[in-house]
Amino acid sequence: MEKRTLGKAGKDVTVFGFGGAETGFQGQAVAGRRNQFFLFTKCGHDKAGDHWNPQKMAAHPGRGQTRFIGYSGDGRAALYAVESGVFDTLQISVNIADQEGIDLAIPAARAKGMGIIAKRPIANAVWKHASKPDPYHQPYWERLPKLDYQFLKGDFQNAVSIALRFTLAAPGVHTAIAGTTQPDRWCQNAELLMKAGALEQGQFDEIHARWKSIAGADWNGQT
What average pLDDT values come out for the chain (223 residues) when binned by 10 residues? Predict the structure, then answer.
């Protein structure tokens, strides 16, 4: 699988990674293979009113607790995190139903040499749901009929392939992480990616232009 250098973190990572939230919620963890992957973990942050303190979050990065520190979020908060100059990486939602970051925070992150990790890269494949899904998936489910992408109306696997390759074609994105409790599904998506190769620039531009012409002012990045 293709690898890209994760910005100033300097680590070569595969373009498709595994998001462990769904597994972690069930109290499971990867063990016995620690030397075979890069481990990224999250924690909460302190707030003061409506603002958070990035300097406090990064107060002790050199004490052996972590080699690099990143920010995970979207919208103006993500841009603020980037501009603070504190962080090495940015984890942000990028997909066919969530493209705010492509024009808002990612260009600034690229300029600072940050590693950029795309979360929710397949938009949770919400177009497969005939009825309204749970609240976490609902914003994308409501957006996609309005975006009316033609490729979502054909073969499901082809749609997944295009959606994933769109995310990885976004300028500045180094890797995308997809979560699942079914390892076979992750392997299937990885195989789709490797078989199809990079998305053509024209198709990326078409999808992004569609988003820009349809997206409402309240279509913010979804954490």
Answer: 88 82 58 64 55 56 67 93 92 97 97 96 93 92 97 94 96 89 80 90 98 95 90
Is 132 within a domain? Answer: yes
3-state secondary structure the chain: CCEEECHHHCCEEECEEEECHHHHCCCCCCCCCHHHCCCCCCCCCCEECCEECHHHHCCCCCCCCCCCCEEECCHHHHHHHHHHCCCCEEEEECECCECHHHHCCHHHHHHCCCEEEEECCCHHHHHHCCCCCCCCCHHHHHHHHHHCCHHHHCCHHHHHHHHHHHHHHCCCCCEEEEECCCHHHHHHHHHHHHHHCCCCHHHHHHHHHHHHHHCCCCCCCCC
Range of the structural domain that residue 87 is part of: 3-26+66-211
Task: For 4-39, write each residue's pLDDT tens digit.
Answer: 899 998 889 888 887 766 555 557 556 666 666 666
Query: Does residue 60 sit within a domain?
Result: no
**45, part of any domain:** no
Given a contact cutoff of 8 angstroms between Cβ atoms, the answer to whether 140 and 123 are in contact is yes
Query: Does residue 33 lie within any of the structural domains?
Result: no
For residue 67, give every residue at least 6 positions away whose Cβ sits within 8 Å of its Cβ, in sequence order, or none.
Answer: 9, 61
